[in-house]
Specification:
- About 40% of the residues lie in helices and about 20% in strands.
- It has a 7-stranded parallel β-sheet with strand order 10-11-9-12-13-8-14, with helices on both faces. Strands 15-20-19-16-18-17 form a 6-stranded parallel β-sheet, with helices on both faces. The chain has a 5-stranded mixed beta barrel with strand order 2-3-4-6-5.
- The longest helix is centred in the N-terminal third of the chain and has 28 residues.
Length: about 675
C-alpha cells in the first residue's frame, strides 16, 4: 500500500506528477515522509497594534480603500492599506497583478507574512491570503506544485494509508520515553489537531530517526579496520610547540595530546577538531602533520578553496620546510605538467606533506605511505569527500576541522562517526571585534566610517545575501550595491566577488584583496571561510536579518585577525538575535541560541551526506532529545543479544546502513 504510485491519488495531473517525480517523490511513502519544513499558526491572528519588525504571523484585517499599483523596472508593486480594531498598516505584494481585483474595500482577509520597516513605515511584505484555519503545514517548494495542491495531495495520501504504517519500535522503548504511536505521529506531523499533538508527533519521529542513525553509526565503528599506527615519543609534541612564535593554549595542548594518543593506537584516528574562529585549529593540525612526518609517513591537508590551500601551503613552508620536511601544493589550477610532477612526487614519497583542494582526491592521485588526512572546514566537503581522501591510503588517520561552532550535543549526531576535540580557549592577542546593529537610517554614516578606515589604510568587506535583484525578496544584491558603492566611495578601490563567478576569477579577486590591491570587497557569503586578511578591519553585513546567527559569527571572524581595532556592522532593524551577537563573541553560546531559534539544520550551509534530515529539522532546538537518543543507542549496543537491541539494529540497518556504508571511514 505504501509503495502505491502517486497517480492513484486524486488531484494530481501528469504535469504535477512529473514535477513531484523530479523532486524524488514517486510513491505514497515518499510523499508522507516529506515532512513539513515549517508550520503557520492560523489559530489566533495577531492584532496589528502588537506587530513588530521581523515578526512573521497571521493577521485578520479588512481592506481600507482601493489597492494601488506602481510599476518599476521588472517590478509591479501592489499596495493595500489594511486595518483591524487595534490599528492599521500597509500590505505589499510584488508581481502579482491579479491581486488588485481581490483587494476591494471592506473585504476581510486572513493574511500570513513577515512585517518589516520600509521607507519609515511598517509593512506586511508579500503575505499569503489564507483560506484555512488551524496549524497549517509548509512544505519545501516543488516547482510546478502550488502549496495548496501539495497539502491536498499529502492529506489524500494520509487518508489512503490511514492506520497502515507499521510501528516497529519496541514497545518497552516507547513506554520508557513516552512516545506516541507511529500512525498518530505521521498524521499529526502534517495536520496536527493542536500544538500538543504536533509536539508529540515531532518528538516521536525525531526520536526514532536519530536513534536509528546513531545505532547505524555504532555498527560502522565496530567494523573499523586496523589503521596506520605512528610511533613517536611525547617529547616530539613538545618539540613542535617550541617551533611556534607563541605558547599554545591549554585547549590546544589537550587536543594535540588526544590526537597523538589516537595516532599511536592500533585503530585509525577518526577525530573532529572543533573550534571557534581564531581558536588556533590550524596550529594543532600542523602539529598532527609534524608528528606524522616525524614517524616516516606522508600527511595531506585538503582545503575547500584554492586561496585557503595557498595560505596553508605558505604556512607549512615557513614552519616545516626549514626542518627538512618536503612540502608540496596540488590544486586544480596547476598546469598539466605541474600536475604530473605533483602526482609523481606523492606516489614516490618525494613529498612528505601535501596541501591541496579537491585535486587531492581525483582519480590517478596515489600516495606512497599516507599516514594522516586532514580536511579543513568539514561542512564544505561532506562525509563522502573526506572519506574518498581517506581511501587513498591503507586506513590512514583522519582529522576533520570545523570552525562552525556546533554545540557539543549536536556534534554527537552530526559527527557520530568521529571522536571530538574542542578548542574552547582563544589565544592571547586576538583583537576583539566591536559589533553594532545599524538601522537603515544610519547606513550613510556607517559608509562614511568605512571610508575613514580606508583612508587610514585598512580594508573592508561588504556582504550581501543576494547576487542579483530578486522580485520575491526585499534585500540588497551584491551587483547593485557594488555599483552604488563605486559612486559613494569614489576614492576607494571597490571590487566584487560572488559564487556565480568561475572559480579562477573568484580566487584571483580574493587573492587581490588579500594582497591589498582593493580596499572594499563587495561579496556574497563566499568569503565566509578561507580568507585571511589581517589588514581588513571592517565587516558590513547588509540585510543581516536574513542570515543565521552562526553564519553572522563566521562572517565577523573574517576581521579582527590583525593588530587593528576591528568592527562588524549588521545593517538591519535591531532584534533579539542581532542584539545577542553584539553582546557576545562566544561562538558556542551563539550557536546554541541559533539552534533554539532556527533549528539545528540551519547551522550548515550544505546538508551533510547521510545525516537524518527529518530528525534534525523536527528537533527545533530540543538538544535534550539529541542527548537522550545518543545515550540510548550506546546502552542498546552494550546489550547485543537483547531482543530489543536486535529489533532496533534490524531497523537501523534497513533505514540507514545502506546510506552510510559508502561514506564510512575506512
Amino acid at each position: 500500500m505504501m509503495d502505491l504510485e502517486l497517480s492513484r491519488l486524486p488531484g494530481l495531473g501528469p504535469s504535477r506528477l512529473q514535477a513531484l517525480e523530479k523532486a524524488g517523490v514517486r510513491t505514497l511513502r515518499d510523499l508522507v515522509m516529506r515532512l513539513p519544513v515549517a508550520y503557520r499558526d492560523l489559530t489566533a491572528p495577531t492584532p496589528l497594534a502588537e506587530v513588530r519588525p521581523g515578526l512573521e504571523c497571521a493577521v485578520l484585517a479588512r481592506v481600507v480603500g482601493d489597492a494601488t499599483e506602481q510599476r518599476a523596472p521588472r517590478l509591479l508593486i501592489t499596495r493595500a492599506r489594511i486595518a483591524d480594531a487595534s490599528g492599521d498598516t500597509v500590505a505589499v505584494w510584488y508581481n502579482q497583478p491579479w491581486l488588485k481585483k481581490q483587494l476591494h474595500s471592506g473585504r476581510e482577509l486572513l493574511l500570513y507574512g513577515r512585517f518589516s520597516i520600509r521607507r519609515g513605515e511598517m509593512q506586511l511584505v508579500c503575505p499569503s491570503i489564507e483560506r484555512e484555519r488551524g496549524i497549517v503545514p509548509v512544505y519545501k517548494a516543488v516547482a510546478g506544485v502550488p502549496p495548496r495542491a501539495m497539502r491536498q495531495a499529502v492529506r489524500a495520501a494520509l487518508e489512503v494509508g490511514r492506520g497502515q504504517w507499521p510501528d516497529e519500535l519496541p514497545e518497552g522503548l516507547k513506554r520508557r520515553y513516552g512516545l506516541c504511536e507511529r500512525n498518530f505521529a505521521l498524521y499529526n506531523a502534517h495536520f496536527p489537531l493542536n500544538a500538543e499533538s504536533l509536539s508529540a508527533a515531532r518528538r516521536r519521529i525525531a526520536f526514532e530517526e536519530l536513534l536509528l542513525y546513531q545505532v547505524a553509526l555504532s555498527l560502522l565503528r565496530s567494523d573499523a579496520r586496523v589503521g596506520v599506527r605512528l610511533e613517536f615519543p611525547d617529547s616530539e609534541i613538545e618539540n613542535f610547540w617550541k617551533l611556534l612564535a607563541f605558547p599554545p593554549t591549554g585547549a590546544q595542548r589537550r587536543a594535540l595530546y588526544e590526537m597523538a594518543n589516537d595516532m599511536r593506537a592500533n585503530a585509525p584516528m577518526a577525530r573532529l577538531l572543533q573550534g571557534d574562529v581564531g581558536s588556533g585549529k590550524t596550529a594543532v593540525a600542523f602539529g598532527a602533520m609534524y608528528l606524522t612526518w616525524k614517524s616516516g609517513f606522508q600527511a595531506a591537508l585538503m582545503a575547500p578553496t584554492e586561496v585557503l590551500a595557498q595560505q596553508h601551503y605558505q604556512d607549512a613552508l615557513s614552519l616545516l620546510a626549514p626542518l627538512g620536511a618536503r612540502v608540496g601544493l596540488l590544486t586544480g589550477s596547476l598546469t598539466k605538467k605541474q600536475h604530473a610532477l605533483a602526482h609523481e612526487a606523492l606516489a614516490t614519497g618525494e613529498w612528505d606533506i601535501v596541501i591541496g583542494t579537491h585535486a587531492l582526491i581525483t582519480e590517478g592521485v596515489s600516495y606512497q605511505n599516507l599516514g594522516l588526512v586532514v580536511t579543513d572546514e568539514q561542512h564544505r566537503f561532506g562525509v563522502r569527500q573526506r572519506t574518498k581522501l581517506g581511501q587513498k591510503g591503507e586506513s590512514p588517520n583522519v582529522l576533520v576541522m570545523s570552525a562552525t561552532p556546533i554545540p557539543r550535543t549536536l556534534s554527537l549526531i552530526l559527527y557520530g562517526d568521529l571522536d571530538l576535540s574542542i578548542l574552547d580557549e582563544m589565544p592571547p592577542g586576538r583583537t576583539p571585534v566591536k559589533t553594532r546593529v545599524v538601522p537603515e537610517s544610519r547606513r550613510q554614516d556607517m559608509y562614511g566610517f568605512v571610508m575613514q578606515k580606508v583612508r587610514e589604510g585598512r580594508q573592508a568587506y561588504v556582504i550581501c545575501p543576494l547576487v542579483d535583484k530578486s522580485e520575491a525578496v526585499e534585500a540588497r544584491d551584491a551587483q547593485e550595491l557594488y555599483a552604488e558603492l563605486v559612486g559613494l566611495l569614489p576614492k576607494a578601490r571597490v571590487s566584487l566577488v560572488h559564487g556565480r563567478m568561475k572559480a579562477a576569477e573568484k580566487d584571483a579577486l580574493l587573492e587581490a584583496f588579500r594582497a591589498g590591491e582593493s580596499d572594499v570587497l563587495v561579496s556574497t557569503t563566499v568569503v565566509e571561510v578561507g580568507v585571511n586578511v589581517p589588514n581588513a578591519s571592517v565587516m558590513v553585513v547588509e540585510n543581516a536579518e536574513r542570515f543565521g546567527l552562526a553564519q553572522l559569527h563566521q562572517l565577523r571572524g573574517r576581521v579582527g585577525r590583525g593588530q587593528y581595532e576591528s568592527w562588524c556592522f549588521l545593517v538591519a532593524e535591531p532584534n533579539e538575535r542581532l542584539r545577542l551577537l553584539a553582546q557576545t563573541s562566544d561562538g558556542f553560546k551563539i550557536a546554541e541560541k541559533d539552534m533554539e531559534l532556527r533549528g539545528p539544520g540551519e547551522l550548515f550551509g550544505e546538508r551533510q551526506s547521510g545525516i537524518p534530515a527529518i530528525g534534525l529539522s523536527m528537533l527545533a532546538g530540543d538538544t535534550q532529545l539529541l542527548k537522550i537518543t545518543h545515550d540510548e543507542a550506546r546502552a542498546l549496543m552494550k546489550r547485543p543479544q537483547d531482543a530489543e537491541t536486535r529489533q532496533v539494529v534490524a531497523l537501523a540497518r534497513r533505514a540507514f546502513l545502506g546510506r552510510l556504508e559508502d561514506v564510512a571511514l575506512n
